[in-house]
Amino acid sequence: MDKPAETSFEVHEFIRDRWSPRGFADKSVEDAQLGSLLEAARWAASSYNEQPWQFFVATKRQPMEYQKLLACLVEFNQSWAQTAPVLLLSVASTRFARNGKPNQHAWHDVGLASAGLCMQATSMGLVCHGMAGFNAAKARTALQIPDGYEPVAAWAIGYQSDDLSVLPENLREQEQQPRERKPLSDFVFTGSWGQSAAFLKSD
Questions:
Q1: Quick one: which of 24, 86, 114, 189 has the fewest CB in 10 Å?
Q2: Cβ neighbours, 10 Å, residue 135
Q3: What is the pTM of this model?
């Protein structure tokens, strides 16, 4: 199911075509493909080149590790994410390694790394769905995440299914709804807060 974005300006096809389905096909993601996704994350920009990201990854070929990550998700997300062949958890280092001071940009930088991963996935015919709905305390305990590091987001990764029956019934209609975004004029300002940038046309 393709749902390309209706953009106001031209963007790369990987940005236009990327979206976050919940229905996954029963098809494995190979180790080399996972390596490519994480290589894309590795080369993201970061403040002082700190690279404050860590990723836990588990595939269905690793049932114990997979179940450990799945159990960290809230029940709603477990209901559909359990079909994904890959689960991932991103983690941020909260302090600069260079001087031990708090790194308030760590979450931003982990987000950039995750965006790179998602764009690489789209280029390979894979899909990613990010989740805020997970139990950070449970993840910290189950994965032995040390102090100074904070879980950021969970991800389900795989091939999109064309069969909506893989989803719980209450999610099938939602999967088909069109994608929407705020217009650029709502959040791109010049000069003062709320003053839309002059270069924006009607979007």
A1: 189
A2: 15
A3: 0.91
